[in-house]
Design a protein that fits this description.
Elements lengths: L1 H21 L6 H11 L3 E4 L2 E4 L1 E8 L2 E7 L6 H5 L2 H8 L10 H5 L7 H11 L5 E6 L3 E6 L20 E6 L5 E5 L6 E4 L6 H15 L4 E7 L15 E5 L2 H23 L6 H4 L4 E7 L8 H17 L1 E7 L9 H5 L3 E4 L5 H8 L15 E4 L3
Parallel strand pairs: 9-13, 9-14, 10-11, 10-12, 12-13
Antiparallel strand pairs: 1-2, 3-4, 4-6, 5-6, 7-8, 14-15
Helix pairs in contact: 2-4, 8-10
Length: about 375
């Protein structure tokens, strides 16, 4: 009888919360967003009247809800996107009342595990919501009921033998993102220390060796003392290896000579690039901590030359830094490298140096969480 009484009281309490919710004491995400818009002064005042962002419609998708808004004339989507963190924090403000649906109650099994089930239900209500904001003429705010996973296990099924397509991450919807170096030849990788930059470089090198063991050639310039690439220095695929700026400059001079020979061989035979020429070999120049080369003008000029001409010769650049500034990532290099992968950075300015837009400074404090951009937004 004690068990039955406790169960009855627990279910009655849950039913009470559910009843209160249906009577309107709870606050929906749409209500919260509208309140945040008001409190954050996201509106336009004209002729003594205030024009606000208006909800047009919403739609459910697997794992969340999308709210679609009409912006008043004079208010830019940028002003809203820059306050994404304000919206996210507001949506995650916790009250002392948990909101339950009737479907939550239906899922309970009235047995000895009822207390554990209720605790699990309470815990599920505390999951952190995350949002994405896009503008395509309408402001689209997607609210995800759960945050992205903190860890994704690697397995051999991610490899694509015989290709230059490398797995670099998963989207929120579980879709794998691959970077195909035969389509986007170069890549800039940036982010604060400890957030995944070196890990992704080791993943790229490992994947290249596993997928193209006979055709990949590597120049590994590890200016953090060799911590990232030392394990690969004796691989048969590694042609050049350096761990200090002076040696790196000498290595880059040799790479440029090799690239020039390859470039002339391709162009003089009437081909646009190595792919058209049917040449299978690709040479990857991977520089970890490019900031340490910024005082070596000749070295940086060669890096820019690789970014400009290397694609035709089959010389592909992966340029990495934890200090993304205009001095570290020269504008000419950047303009020739369309693909960018950016982990957490400390400022909006750093994000714009890498991505040409803000956002990376607002990433959650989770190693491995990043923004991948390939082409114009």
């Amino acid at each position: 009888m004690i068990f039955e009484v406790v169960t009855s009281i627990a279910v009655a309490g849950l039913a009470g919360y559910s009843f209160l919710k249906t009577k309107g004491t709870g606050t929906s995400d749409a209500d919260k967003i509208q309140t945040i818009f008001t409190n954050a002064d996201l509106s336009i005042r004209k002729g003594g009247k205030t024009e606000t962002i208006r909800l047009q419609r919403k739609r459910k998708f697997e794992g969340g809800t999308e709210y679609i808004y009409q912006l008043p004339l004079g208010l830019s989507s940028k002003e809203v996107i820059e306050k994404k963190h304000v919206l996210e924090d507001g949506l995650n403000v916790r009250s002392n009342v948990f909101e339950f649906r009737f479907s939550d109650l239906k899922s309970l099994k009235f047995d000895k595990s009822i207390v554990r089930q209720i605790r699990g239900l309470l815990k599920s209500k505390r999951k952190k919501k995350e949002i994405d904001i896009e503008f395509d003429g309408m402001l689209r705010i997607k609210i995800y009921n759960e945050s992205m996973p903190n860890l994704v296990e690697w397995n051999e099924s991610l490899l694509k033998p015989g290709t230059w397509s490398i797995p670099i991450g998963y989207t929120r919807n579980g879709e794998i993102i691959n970077h195909d170096f035969d389509k986007s030849k170069h890549l800039i990788v940036a982010g604060a220390t400890g957030y995944g930059k070196s890990v992704i470089l080791k993943l790229i090198v490992t994947s290249l060796i596993c997928q193209q063991p006979e055709n990949v050639e590597l120049s590994l310039i590890d200016l953090k003392g060799g911590s990232a690439f030392h394990r690969f220095k004796d691989c048969m695929q590694t042609k050049y290896y350096s761990r200090d700026p002076k040696t790196a400059e000498k290595v880059l001079i040799e790479i440029q000579k090799d690239m020039n020979n390859s470039f002339l061989g391709v162009v003089d035979n009437g081909f646009e690039d190595v792919k058209e020429a049917g040449i299978k070999k690709r040479h990857f120049i991977i520089i970890d901590e490019s900031a340490d080369l910024s005082d070596y003008k000749n070295a940086m000029d060669i890096v820019t030359d690789i970014a400009r001409r290397g694609r035709s010769a089959g010389y592909y650049l992966i340029f990495c830094t934890q200090y993304p500034t205009a001095e570290v990532i020269p504008s000419q290099t950047k303009r020739n490298v369309i693909a960018r992968l950016c982990y957490v950075v400390d400022t909006d300015t750093a994000s714009r140096v890498v991505l040409d837009e803000g956002g990376a400074e607002q990433l959650p404090d989770i190693p491995g969480r990043g923004i991948y951009k390939n082409g114009p937004r």
